[in-house]
Design a protein that fits this description.
The chain has about 550 residues and is an alpha+beta fold. The chain contains 21 helices and 17 strands. It is globular, with a radius of gyration of 24 Å.
Length: about 550
Protein backbone atom coordinates (compact mmCIF):
# COMPACT_ATOMS: atom_id res chain seq x y z
CA UNK A 1 0.00 0.00 0.00
CA UNK A 2 1.31 3.43 -0.80
CA UNK A 3 0.85 6.58 1.20
CA UNK A 4 1.72 9.94 -0.28
CA UNK A 5 1.62 13.09 1.82
CA UNK A 6 2.43 16.74 1.26
CA UNK A 7 5.77 18.34 2.09
CA UNK A 8 4.66 19.08 5.62
CA UNK A 9 4.92 15.37 6.33
CA UNK A 10 7.15 12.74 4.78
CA UNK A 11 5.50 10.99 1.89
CA UNK A 12 5.04 7.30 2.57
CA UNK A 13 4.36 4.95 -0.30
CA UNK A 14 3.12 1.50 0.46
CA UNK A 15 2.52 -0.68 -2.57
CA UNK A 16 1.44 -4.29 -2.71
CA UNK A 17 2.11 -6.79 -5.45
CA UNK A 18 -0.28 -9.57 -6.12
CA UNK A 19 0.53 -12.16 -8.75
CA UNK A 20 -2.82 -13.81 -9.44
CA UNK A 21 -4.44 -15.23 -12.50
CA UNK A 22 -7.49 -16.22 -14.18
CA UNK A 23 -6.76 -18.15 -10.72
CA UNK A 24 -1.98 -17.15 -8.99
CA UNK A 25 10.31 -23.66 -11.93
CA UNK A 26 12.84 -26.11 -12.65
CA UNK A 27 16.29 -26.99 -13.92
CA UNK A 28 17.63 -26.80 -17.42
CA UNK A 29 16.83 -29.67 -19.74
CA UNK A 30 19.71 -31.93 -20.64
CA UNK A 31 21.54 -31.66 -23.92
CA UNK A 32 20.42 -35.14 -24.93
CA UNK A 33 16.79 -34.14 -24.58
CA UNK A 34 17.28 -31.03 -26.66
CA UNK A 35 19.01 -33.00 -29.41
CA UNK A 36 16.00 -35.26 -29.47
CA UNK A 37 13.83 -32.25 -30.20
CA UNK A 38 16.00 -31.37 -33.15
CA UNK A 39 15.88 -34.87 -34.54
CA UNK A 40 12.07 -34.89 -34.72
CA UNK A 41 11.63 -31.31 -35.88
CA UNK A 42 9.32 -30.66 -38.79
CA UNK A 43 8.92 -27.48 -40.83
CA UNK A 44 5.96 -25.49 -39.52
CA UNK A 45 5.58 -27.72 -36.46
CA UNK A 46 6.05 -27.04 -32.77
CA UNK A 47 8.22 -29.43 -30.77
CA UNK A 48 6.87 -30.60 -27.43
CA UNK A 49 7.99 -32.75 -24.50
CA UNK A 50 5.74 -35.30 -22.81
CA UNK A 51 6.49 -36.32 -19.23
CA UNK A 52 4.90 -39.35 -17.55
CA UNK A 53 4.08 -39.00 -13.86
CA UNK A 54 3.43 -42.73 -13.53
CA UNK A 55 6.94 -43.52 -14.80
CA UNK A 56 8.37 -40.81 -12.56
CA UNK A 57 6.70 -42.39 -9.53
CA UNK A 58 8.02 -45.83 -10.46
CA UNK A 59 11.56 -44.49 -10.92
CA UNK A 60 11.51 -42.68 -7.59
CA UNK A 61 10.22 -45.74 -5.77
CA UNK A 62 12.98 -47.93 -7.22
CA UNK A 63 15.87 -45.43 -6.94
CA UNK A 64 14.77 -42.73 -4.48
CA UNK A 65 18.26 -41.34 -3.85
CA UNK A 66 19.68 -41.31 -7.38
CA UNK A 67 17.06 -39.51 -9.46
CA UNK A 68 18.42 -38.06 -12.69
CA UNK A 69 18.19 -34.42 -13.68
CA UNK A 70 15.75 -35.43 -16.43
CA UNK A 71 13.51 -37.00 -13.80
CA UNK A 72 13.69 -34.11 -11.33
CA UNK A 73 13.17 -31.36 -13.95
CA UNK A 74 10.22 -32.72 -15.93
CA UNK A 75 12.41 -33.71 -18.87
CA UNK A 76 13.53 -30.13 -19.41
CA UNK A 77 10.08 -28.53 -19.78
CA UNK A 78 10.30 -24.78 -19.21
CA UNK A 79 6.78 -23.89 -20.37
CA UNK A 80 3.76 -26.03 -19.56
CA UNK A 81 1.12 -26.15 -22.28
CA UNK A 82 -1.21 -28.96 -21.32
CA UNK A 83 -2.10 -32.29 -19.75
CA UNK A 84 -3.23 -35.65 -21.10
CA UNK A 85 -4.62 -38.39 -18.88
CA UNK A 86 -4.49 -41.97 -20.13
CA UNK A 87 -7.15 -43.86 -18.10
CA UNK A 88 -6.08 -47.26 -19.43
CA UNK A 89 -2.55 -46.86 -18.16
CA UNK A 90 -3.69 -44.66 -15.24
CA UNK A 91 -1.00 -42.21 -16.29
CA UNK A 92 -1.09 -38.42 -16.06
CA UNK A 93 1.18 -36.91 -18.72
CA UNK A 94 2.41 -33.31 -18.58
CA UNK A 95 3.03 -31.58 -21.91
CA UNK A 96 5.26 -28.58 -22.50
CA UNK A 97 8.05 -26.93 -24.42
CA UNK A 98 11.73 -26.37 -23.77
CA UNK A 99 13.05 -22.85 -24.29
CA UNK A 100 16.82 -22.40 -23.83
CA UNK A 101 17.40 -20.08 -20.90
CA UNK A 102 13.87 -20.57 -19.60
CA UNK A 103 13.09 -20.97 -15.91
CA UNK A 104 13.29 -24.50 -14.52
CA UNK A 105 10.31 -26.54 -13.34
CA UNK A 106 10.86 -29.35 -10.86
CA UNK A 107 8.90 -32.25 -9.46
CA UNK A 108 9.08 -30.48 -6.09
CA UNK A 109 7.31 -27.49 -7.63
CA UNK A 110 4.61 -29.75 -9.06
CA UNK A 111 4.00 -31.50 -5.73
CA UNK A 112 3.87 -28.18 -3.83
CA UNK A 113 1.33 -26.70 -6.28
CA UNK A 114 -0.74 -29.88 -6.20
CA UNK A 115 -0.90 -29.99 -2.41
CA UNK A 116 -1.67 -26.30 -2.11
CA UNK A 117 -4.71 -26.63 -4.32
CA UNK A 118 -5.97 -30.19 -3.78
CA UNK A 119 -5.07 -30.78 -0.13
CA UNK A 120 -5.22 -27.36 1.48
CA UNK A 121 -7.72 -25.69 -0.88
CA UNK A 122 -5.55 -22.59 -0.90
CA UNK A 123 -3.64 -20.61 -3.49
CA UNK A 124 0.13 -20.15 -3.07
CA UNK A 125 0.78 -16.74 -1.55
CA UNK A 126 3.61 -14.68 -0.11
CA UNK A 127 2.85 -11.36 1.55
CA UNK A 128 5.19 -8.82 3.15
CA UNK A 129 3.20 -6.65 5.57
CA UNK A 130 3.80 -4.31 8.52
CA UNK A 131 4.03 -5.92 11.95
CA UNK A 132 2.66 -4.15 15.04
CA UNK A 133 6.20 -3.06 15.95
CA UNK A 134 7.50 -2.27 12.43
CA UNK A 135 7.85 1.45 13.21
CA UNK A 136 10.12 0.54 16.13
CA UNK A 137 12.10 -2.38 14.72
CA UNK A 138 12.19 -1.51 11.02
CA UNK A 139 11.20 -5.09 10.13
CA UNK A 140 8.11 -6.34 8.33
CA UNK A 141 6.52 -9.78 8.68
CA UNK A 142 6.54 -12.29 5.82
CA UNK A 143 3.29 -14.23 5.60
CA UNK A 144 3.31 -17.44 3.55
CA UNK A 145 0.15 -19.38 2.68
CA UNK A 146 -0.78 -22.44 0.67
CA UNK A 147 1.68 -24.88 2.20
CA UNK A 148 4.68 -23.31 0.46
CA UNK A 149 6.56 -22.29 3.61
CA UNK A 150 9.97 -23.94 3.80
CA UNK A 151 10.02 -24.83 0.09
CA UNK A 152 11.96 -23.52 -2.91
CA UNK A 153 8.58 -22.62 -4.41
CA UNK A 154 7.90 -20.27 -1.50
CA UNK A 155 11.44 -18.92 -1.50
CA UNK A 156 11.27 -18.01 -5.18
CA UNK A 157 7.94 -16.18 -4.82
CA UNK A 158 9.40 -14.20 -1.94
CA UNK A 159 12.52 -13.28 -3.90
CA UNK A 160 10.47 -12.14 -6.92
CA UNK A 161 8.31 -9.99 -4.66
CA UNK A 162 11.30 -8.45 -2.90
CA UNK A 163 13.07 -7.77 -6.19
CA UNK A 164 10.02 -5.96 -7.55
CA UNK A 165 9.99 -3.69 -4.51
CA UNK A 166 13.68 -2.86 -4.95
CA UNK A 167 13.14 -2.01 -8.62
CA UNK A 168 10.12 0.14 -7.77
CA UNK A 169 12.17 2.13 -5.27
CA UNK A 170 15.10 2.47 -7.65
CA UNK A 171 17.36 0.57 -5.23
CA UNK A 172 17.84 -2.14 -7.87
CA UNK A 173 18.03 -1.08 -11.54
CA UNK A 174 15.39 -2.60 -13.79
CA UNK A 175 18.09 -3.00 -16.51
CA UNK A 176 15.35 -2.25 -19.03
CA UNK A 177 15.53 1.32 -20.34
CA UNK A 178 11.78 1.53 -20.84
CA UNK A 179 11.10 0.69 -17.15
CA UNK A 180 12.32 3.50 -14.89
CA UNK A 181 11.62 3.18 -11.18
CA UNK A 182 8.40 4.28 -9.57
CA UNK A 183 10.49 6.64 -7.44
CA UNK A 184 11.60 8.53 -10.54
CA UNK A 185 7.97 8.98 -11.67
CA UNK A 186 6.56 10.47 -8.44
CA UNK A 187 6.57 13.95 -9.97
CA UNK A 188 3.78 12.93 -12.34
CA UNK A 189 1.44 12.49 -9.38
CA UNK A 190 2.66 15.53 -7.48
CA UNK A 191 2.09 17.86 -10.45
CA UNK A 192 -1.65 17.15 -10.27
CA UNK A 193 -1.62 18.27 -6.61
CA UNK A 194 0.56 21.36 -6.99
CA UNK A 195 -2.20 23.71 -5.79
CA UNK A 196 -3.16 21.61 -2.78
CA UNK A 197 -2.38 22.88 0.71
CA UNK A 198 -2.28 19.33 2.00
CA UNK A 199 -3.02 15.86 0.78
CA UNK A 200 -2.94 12.25 1.89
CA UNK A 201 -3.19 9.52 -0.73
CA UNK A 202 -3.22 5.78 -0.08
CA UNK A 203 -2.79 3.65 -3.16
CA UNK A 204 -1.61 0.20 -4.08
CA UNK A 205 -0.28 -1.53 -7.13
CA UNK A 206 -0.04 -5.25 -7.73
CA UNK A 207 1.38 -7.61 -10.30
CA UNK A 208 -0.35 -10.76 -11.44
CA UNK A 209 -0.02 -13.26 -14.27
CA UNK A 210 -3.11 -13.48 -16.45
CA UNK A 211 -3.78 -16.95 -17.81
CA UNK A 212 -6.70 -17.14 -20.17
CA UNK A 213 -9.03 -19.71 -18.62
CA UNK A 214 -7.52 -23.18 -18.81
CA UNK A 215 -9.74 -25.37 -20.98
CA UNK A 216 -10.48 -29.01 -20.21
CA UNK A 217 -12.15 -31.39 -22.64
CA UNK A 218 -12.62 -34.95 -21.43
CA UNK A 219 -9.09 -36.04 -20.38
CA UNK A 220 -7.12 -33.32 -22.16
CA UNK A 221 -6.33 -29.80 -20.94
CA UNK A 222 -4.68 -26.82 -22.61
CA UNK A 223 -2.95 -23.96 -20.83
CA UNK A 224 -2.82 -20.74 -22.82
CA UNK A 225 0.14 -18.38 -22.86
CA UNK A 226 0.91 -16.46 -19.70
CA UNK A 227 0.68 -12.70 -19.72
CA UNK A 228 1.81 -10.60 -16.78
CA UNK A 229 0.13 -7.26 -16.16
CA UNK A 230 0.44 -4.63 -13.48
CA UNK A 231 -2.42 -2.57 -12.16
CA UNK A 232 -2.69 0.23 -9.66
CA UNK A 233 -5.57 1.61 -7.67
CA UNK A 234 -6.05 4.55 -5.33
CA UNK A 235 -7.63 3.20 -2.16
CA UNK A 236 -8.32 6.55 -0.49
CA UNK A 237 -7.45 10.21 -1.01
CA UNK A 238 -7.84 13.38 1.05
CA UNK A 239 -7.01 16.73 -0.55
CA UNK A 240 -7.27 19.94 1.49
CA UNK A 241 -8.89 17.96 4.29
CA UNK A 242 -11.66 16.45 2.17
CA UNK A 243 -12.15 12.94 0.88
CA UNK A 244 -11.67 12.90 -2.89
CA UNK A 245 -12.89 10.31 -5.37
CA UNK A 246 -11.56 9.47 -8.82
CA UNK A 247 -8.06 10.75 -8.09
CA UNK A 248 -5.37 9.19 -10.28
CA UNK A 249 -1.89 8.33 -9.06
CA UNK A 250 -0.29 9.04 -12.42
CA UNK A 251 3.23 8.02 -11.42
CA UNK A 252 2.19 4.56 -10.29
CA UNK A 253 -0.07 4.14 -13.31
CA UNK A 254 2.85 4.96 -15.60
CA UNK A 255 5.15 2.53 -13.81
CA UNK A 256 2.49 -0.19 -13.97
CA UNK A 257 2.07 0.27 -17.72
CA UNK A 258 5.81 0.15 -18.29
CA UNK A 259 6.24 -3.12 -16.41
CA UNK A 260 3.21 -4.64 -18.15
CA UNK A 261 4.41 -3.65 -21.60
CA UNK A 262 8.00 -4.79 -21.08
CA UNK A 263 7.62 -7.74 -18.73
CA UNK A 264 9.23 -10.22 -21.11
CA UNK A 265 12.27 -7.96 -21.31
CA UNK A 266 12.39 -7.88 -17.50
CA UNK A 267 12.23 -11.68 -17.42
CA UNK A 268 15.24 -11.87 -19.73
CA UNK A 269 17.41 -9.93 -17.26
CA UNK A 270 15.77 -10.98 -13.97
CA UNK A 271 15.22 -14.78 -13.88
CA UNK A 272 13.19 -14.45 -10.69
CA UNK A 273 10.28 -13.05 -12.69
CA UNK A 274 10.44 -15.94 -15.15
CA UNK A 275 10.17 -18.28 -12.20
CA UNK A 276 6.86 -16.70 -11.22
CA UNK A 277 5.56 -17.31 -14.73
CA UNK A 278 6.17 -21.05 -14.69
CA UNK A 279 5.02 -21.47 -11.10
CA UNK A 280 1.71 -19.95 -12.07
CA UNK A 281 1.48 -22.33 -15.03
CA UNK A 282 1.85 -25.18 -12.53
CA UNK A 283 -0.99 -23.76 -10.45
CA UNK A 284 -3.11 -23.61 -13.61
CA UNK A 285 -2.28 -27.23 -14.43
CA UNK A 286 -3.29 -28.42 -10.96
CA UNK A 287 -6.60 -26.60 -11.36
CA UNK A 288 -7.12 -28.33 -14.71
CA UNK A 289 -6.42 -31.76 -13.21
CA UNK A 290 -9.44 -31.27 -10.94
CA UNK A 291 -11.72 -31.06 -13.98
CA UNK A 292 -10.48 -34.02 -16.00
CA UNK A 293 -13.23 -36.47 -16.95
CA UNK A 294 -11.58 -39.48 -15.28
CA UNK A 295 -10.48 -39.47 -11.63
CA UNK A 296 -6.70 -39.37 -11.26
CA UNK A 297 -4.87 -41.24 -8.50
CA UNK A 298 -2.52 -38.62 -7.05
CA UNK A 299 -1.97 -40.16 -3.63
CA UNK A 300 1.80 -40.54 -4.09
CA UNK A 301 2.28 -36.88 -5.04
CA UNK A 302 -0.13 -35.59 -2.40
CA UNK A 303 1.09 -37.60 0.58
CA UNK A 304 4.26 -39.62 -0.01
CA UNK A 305 6.55 -37.75 -2.40
CA UNK A 306 9.36 -36.17 -0.31
CA UNK A 307 9.53 -32.45 -1.10
CA UNK A 308 12.96 -30.91 -0.61
CA UNK A 309 13.26 -28.17 1.98
CA UNK A 310 13.98 -24.54 1.24
CA UNK A 311 14.38 -21.49 3.45
CA UNK A 312 11.62 -18.90 3.65
CA UNK A 313 12.06 -15.88 5.92
CA UNK A 314 9.60 -14.92 8.64
CA UNK A 315 10.56 -11.25 8.58
CA UNK A 316 12.47 -8.83 6.38
CA UNK A 317 13.86 -5.34 6.86
CA UNK A 318 11.48 -2.71 5.59
CA UNK A 319 12.56 -1.30 2.27
CA UNK A 320 12.44 2.48 2.30
CA UNK A 321 13.92 5.30 0.30
CA UNK A 322 14.09 8.96 1.24
CA UNK A 323 15.12 11.96 -0.77
CA UNK A 324 14.06 15.21 -2.36
CA UNK A 325 10.67 15.28 -3.99
CA UNK A 326 10.78 16.94 -7.44
CA UNK A 327 10.25 20.69 -7.55
CA UNK A 328 6.48 20.37 -7.84
CA UNK A 329 6.16 19.77 -4.10
CA UNK A 330 9.31 21.24 -2.63
CA UNK A 331 9.59 18.76 0.22
CA UNK A 332 10.98 15.44 1.32
CA UNK A 333 9.54 12.14 0.12
CA UNK A 334 9.79 8.62 1.48
CA UNK A 335 8.62 5.38 -0.04
CA UNK A 336 8.17 2.02 1.65
CA UNK A 337 6.39 -1.10 0.46
CA UNK A 338 4.16 -3.93 1.59
CA UNK A 339 2.24 -6.61 -0.28
CA UNK A 340 2.97 -9.93 -1.88
CA UNK A 341 2.45 -12.55 -4.55
CA UNK A 342 -0.77 -14.53 -5.03
CA UNK A 343 -1.02 -17.26 -7.68
CA UNK A 344 -4.47 -18.20 -8.92
CA UNK A 345 -5.98 -19.92 -11.95
CA UNK A 346 -9.32 -20.52 -13.66
CA UNK A 347 -10.24 -23.71 -15.49
CA UNK A 348 -13.40 -24.62 -17.38
CA UNK A 349 -14.83 -27.75 -18.93
CA UNK A 350 -15.77 -27.27 -22.56
CA UNK A 351 -18.28 -29.43 -24.40
CA UNK A 352 -17.02 -28.88 -27.92
CA UNK A 353 -13.75 -29.44 -29.72
CA UNK A 354 -12.07 -32.56 -31.07
CA UNK A 355 -9.18 -33.51 -28.79
CA UNK A 356 -8.36 -36.75 -30.63
CA UNK A 357 -5.30 -35.34 -32.38
CA UNK A 358 -3.84 -33.92 -29.15
CA UNK A 359 -4.41 -37.13 -27.20
CA UNK A 360 -3.23 -39.48 -29.93
CA UNK A 361 -0.03 -37.63 -30.79
CA UNK A 362 1.09 -37.95 -27.16
CA UNK A 363 0.13 -41.59 -26.67
CA UNK A 364 1.22 -42.91 -30.09
CA UNK A 365 4.65 -41.31 -30.10
CA UNK A 366 5.58 -42.85 -26.74
CA UNK A 367 8.38 -45.37 -27.43
CA UNK A 368 7.44 -47.74 -24.59
CA UNK A 369 4.82 -47.93 -21.88
CA UNK A 370 7.51 -47.23 -19.28
CA UNK A 371 9.19 -44.29 -21.06
CA UNK A 372 9.60 -41.32 -18.73
CA UNK A 373 9.88 -38.48 -21.23
CA UNK A 374 9.72 -38.23 -25.01
CA UNK A 375 9.49 -35.62 -27.73
CA UNK A 376 6.88 -35.13 -30.44
CA UNK A 377 5.96 -32.54 -33.04
CA UNK A 378 2.55 -30.96 -33.56
CA UNK A 379 1.44 -28.76 -36.41
CA UNK A 380 0.32 -25.61 -34.63
CA UNK A 381 -0.13 -24.84 -30.95
CA UNK A 382 -1.40 -27.06 -28.14
CA UNK A 383 -4.99 -25.80 -28.02
CA UNK A 384 -8.40 -27.44 -27.86
CA UNK A 385 -9.96 -26.54 -31.23
CA UNK A 386 -13.37 -24.98 -30.94
CA UNK A 387 -13.15 -25.30 -27.18
CA UNK A 388 -15.60 -22.93 -25.59
CA UNK A 389 -18.17 -20.49 -26.90
CA UNK A 390 -17.68 -17.62 -24.45
CA UNK A 391 -16.25 -14.59 -26.21
CA UNK A 392 -15.20 -13.11 -22.87
CA UNK A 393 -13.04 -15.97 -21.59
CA UNK A 394 -9.85 -14.17 -22.52
CA UNK A 395 -10.70 -11.23 -20.24
CA UNK A 396 -12.05 -12.90 -17.11
CA UNK A 397 -8.62 -13.79 -15.75
CA UNK A 398 -7.92 -10.15 -15.07
CA UNK A 399 -11.35 -9.68 -13.48
CA UNK A 400 -10.91 -12.79 -11.34
CA UNK A 401 -7.67 -11.45 -9.89
CA UNK A 402 -9.22 -8.03 -9.33
CA UNK A 403 -12.05 -9.61 -7.34
CA UNK A 404 -9.49 -11.43 -5.15
CA UNK A 405 -7.72 -8.11 -4.56
CA UNK A 406 -10.99 -6.42 -3.56
CA UNK A 407 -11.80 -9.19 -1.08
CA UNK A 408 -8.35 -8.78 0.46
CA UNK A 409 -9.16 -5.08 0.91
CA UNK A 410 -12.50 -6.06 2.53
CA UNK A 411 -14.38 -4.35 -0.30
CA UNK A 412 -16.85 -7.20 -0.41
CA UNK A 413 -19.66 -5.47 -2.32
CA UNK A 414 -17.25 -4.37 -5.06
CA UNK A 415 -15.89 -7.92 -5.32
CA UNK A 416 -19.44 -9.29 -5.57
CA UNK A 417 -20.14 -6.91 -8.45
CA UNK A 418 -17.03 -8.14 -10.30
CA UNK A 419 -18.15 -11.76 -9.90
CA UNK A 420 -21.54 -10.79 -11.32
CA UNK A 421 -19.79 -9.38 -14.38
CA UNK A 422 -17.72 -12.57 -14.80
CA UNK A 423 -20.88 -14.65 -14.87
CA UNK A 424 -22.42 -12.38 -17.49
CA UNK A 425 -19.35 -12.27 -19.72
CA UNK A 426 -18.53 -15.99 -19.47
CA UNK A 427 -21.68 -18.09 -18.93
CA UNK A 428 -19.64 -21.29 -18.69
CA UNK A 429 -18.04 -19.86 -15.52
CA UNK A 430 -21.36 -18.88 -13.95
CA UNK A 431 -21.13 -21.51 -11.19
CA UNK A 432 -17.59 -20.40 -10.29
CA UNK A 433 -18.69 -16.75 -10.36
CA UNK A 434 -21.60 -17.43 -8.02
CA UNK A 435 -19.34 -19.37 -5.67
CA UNK A 436 -16.90 -16.45 -5.70
CA UNK A 437 -19.65 -13.96 -4.98
CA UNK A 438 -20.87 -16.22 -2.19
CA UNK A 439 -17.38 -16.06 -0.63
CA UNK A 440 -17.46 -12.26 -0.78
CA UNK A 441 -20.89 -12.11 0.91
CA UNK A 442 -19.94 -14.74 3.48
CA UNK A 443 -16.81 -12.81 4.50
CA UNK A 444 -18.84 -9.61 4.58
CA UNK A 445 -21.24 -11.35 6.95
CA UNK A 446 -18.45 -12.58 9.20
CA UNK A 447 -16.99 -9.07 9.38
CA UNK A 448 -20.14 -7.86 11.11
CA UNK A 449 -21.25 -10.93 13.03
CA UNK A 450 -24.41 -10.40 15.06
CA UNK A 451 -25.94 -7.65 12.97
CA UNK A 452 -29.02 -7.98 10.78
CA UNK A 453 -26.97 -7.07 7.71
CA UNK A 454 -24.44 -9.76 8.59
CA UNK A 455 -27.11 -12.46 8.76
CA UNK A 456 -28.57 -11.27 5.44
CA UNK A 457 -25.16 -11.44 3.76
CA UNK A 458 -24.49 -14.99 4.97
CA UNK A 459 -27.96 -16.12 3.88
CA UNK A 460 -27.30 -14.47 0.52
CA UNK A 461 -24.15 -16.58 0.25
CA UNK A 462 -26.19 -19.67 1.09
CA UNK A 463 -28.63 -19.01 -1.78
CA UNK A 464 -25.81 -18.36 -4.24
CA UNK A 465 -24.07 -21.62 -3.35
CA UNK A 466 -27.28 -23.60 -3.75
CA UNK A 467 -27.74 -22.02 -7.16
CA UNK A 468 -24.12 -22.76 -8.14
CA UNK A 469 -24.57 -26.42 -7.18
CA UNK A 470 -27.71 -26.66 -9.31
CA UNK A 471 -25.61 -25.48 -12.26
CA UNK A 472 -22.62 -27.64 -11.36
CA UNK A 473 -23.62 -30.55 -9.09
CA UNK A 474 -20.09 -32.01 -9.07
CA UNK A 475 -18.49 -28.86 -7.62
CA UNK A 476 -17.12 -30.36 -4.41
CA UNK A 477 -15.63 -27.03 -3.36
CA UNK A 478 -19.08 -25.41 -3.69
CA UNK A 479 -20.54 -28.21 -1.56
CA UNK A 480 -17.86 -27.72 1.10
CA UNK A 481 -18.53 -23.99 1.19
CA UNK A 482 -22.25 -24.65 1.43
CA UNK A 483 -21.66 -26.93 4.41
CA UNK A 484 -19.49 -24.36 6.13
CA UNK A 485 -22.07 -21.61 5.56
CA UNK A 486 -24.80 -23.85 6.97
CA UNK A 487 -22.62 -24.58 10.01
CA UNK A 488 -22.29 -20.87 10.75
CA UNK A 489 -26.08 -20.53 10.47
CA UNK A 490 -26.60 -23.44 12.87
CA UNK A 491 -28.05 -25.74 10.18
CA UNK A 492 -26.09 -28.74 11.43
CA UNK A 493 -28.07 -31.55 9.80
CA UNK A 494 -28.02 -29.83 6.40
CA UNK A 495 -24.32 -29.03 6.83
CA UNK A 496 -23.57 -32.70 7.48
CA UNK A 497 -25.35 -33.66 4.27
CA UNK A 498 -23.43 -31.03 2.26
CA UNK A 499 -20.03 -32.10 3.61
CA UNK A 500 -20.84 -35.77 3.03
CA UNK A 501 -21.90 -35.07 -0.55
CA UNK A 502 -18.68 -33.10 -1.12
CA UNK A 503 -16.68 -36.18 -0.12
CA UNK A 504 -18.82 -38.44 -2.28
CA UNK A 505 -18.22 -36.22 -5.31
CA UNK A 506 -14.54 -35.79 -4.51
CA UNK A 507 -12.88 -37.98 -1.85
CA UNK A 508 -9.95 -35.51 -1.86
CA UNK A 509 -12.14 -32.67 -0.52
CA UNK A 510 -10.34 -32.99 2.81
CA UNK A 511 -11.70 -29.72 4.18
CA UNK A 512 -15.08 -31.46 4.31
CA UNK A 513 -13.59 -33.80 6.95
CA UNK A 514 -12.71 -30.75 9.02
CA UNK A 515 -16.24 -29.39 8.51
CA UNK A 516 -17.77 -32.67 9.65
CA UNK A 517 -15.47 -32.64 12.67
CA UNK A 518 -16.74 -29.18 13.63
CA UNK A 519 -20.41 -30.14 13.20
CA UNK A 520 -20.08 -33.37 15.21
CA UNK A 521 -18.18 -31.52 17.94
CA UNK A 522 -20.96 -28.94 18.16
CA UNK A 523 -23.69 -31.58 18.46
CA UNK A 524 -21.54 -33.61 20.91
CA UNK A 525 -20.94 -36.64 18.74
CA UNK A 526 -17.36 -36.78 19.93
CA UNK A 527 -16.30 -40.11 18.40
CA UNK A 528 -17.37 -38.94 14.94
CA UNK A 529 -15.67 -35.58 15.49
CA UNK A 530 -12.40 -37.30 16.42
CA UNK A 531 -12.52 -39.54 13.35
CA UNK A 532 -13.02 -36.64 10.92
CA UNK A 533 -10.47 -34.32 12.55
CA UNK A 534 -7.88 -37.09 12.36
CA UNK A 535 -8.78 -37.79 8.73
CA UNK A 536 -8.31 -34.10 7.93
CA UNK A 537 -4.92 -33.97 9.69
CA UNK A 538 -3.81 -37.15 7.95
CA UNK A 539 -3.71 -35.25 4.66
CA UNK A 540 -3.51 -31.61 5.71
CA UNK A 541 -1.22 -31.45 8.73
CA UNK A 542 -0.05 -28.02 7.55
CA UNK A 543 -3.51 -26.92 6.41
CA UNK A 544 -5.31 -23.71 7.39
CA UNK A 545 -7.28 -25.44 10.17
CA UNK A 546 -4.67 -27.92 11.37
CA UNK A 547 -4.00 -26.06 14.62
CA UNK A 548 -7.71 -25.81 15.40
CA UNK A 549 -8.19 -29.53 14.70
CA UNK A 550 -5.26 -30.43 16.96
CA UNK A 551 -6.57 -28.26 19.80
CA UNK A 552 -10.05 -29.77 19.56
CA UNK A 553 -8.62 -33.29 19.64
CA UNK A 554 -6.76 -32.40 22.83
CA UNK A 555 -10.00 -31.17 24.40
CA UNK A 556 -11.57 -34.50 23.49
CA UNK A 557 -8.65 -36.42 24.93
CA UNK A 558 -7.70 -37.79 21.55
CA UNK A 559 -4.53 -35.90 20.66
CA UNK A 560 -2.49 -37.59 17.95
Amino acid sequence: MRRLRSSAHPTRRRAALVFGAGCSLPRWGTRSVFLLFLSISHVGATNYIAYSLRSAEAALNSLPHSASSELRTLGGITQLTGVVYDPRARDLILVGEHHPGGAQITLDDFAVALRSRLLLRQWPEVSIDPAPDTAKTGYMKVRIEGGIEGTQFGRDLYEADYLLKRISLGIEPSRVVAVPSNWSLVDETLRTLADANGFDITSRFWFYPVLKAVKVRQNVASVSGLEVKVFTEVLSANVNGRATKDLHDLGSEHFARNVSDHFNELVSVHPAFGRVQVLNELVAVTRAIELLESPVDLDYWLTRYPIGRGTTPKQVKELERRGDVPKASGGVSAMSYQGGVLLQALAIRVNAGDITALRDVVLRTRPKATTLTWGFALAGNWIIPGGGSDAGLDTVGEMYSHAAFLIEQQRFDDAAAVYDSIGEIAPSLRAEARSGKASALFLKGLSGVGSEASDAAIRGALDLLKDAIKTKPDCSECLYRLGYTMTVLGMHRDATEAFTEALRVNPREYLAHFGLGVVFYKIEKDADAVMHFKEYLKYASTGPYAEQAEETLKKLGAAR
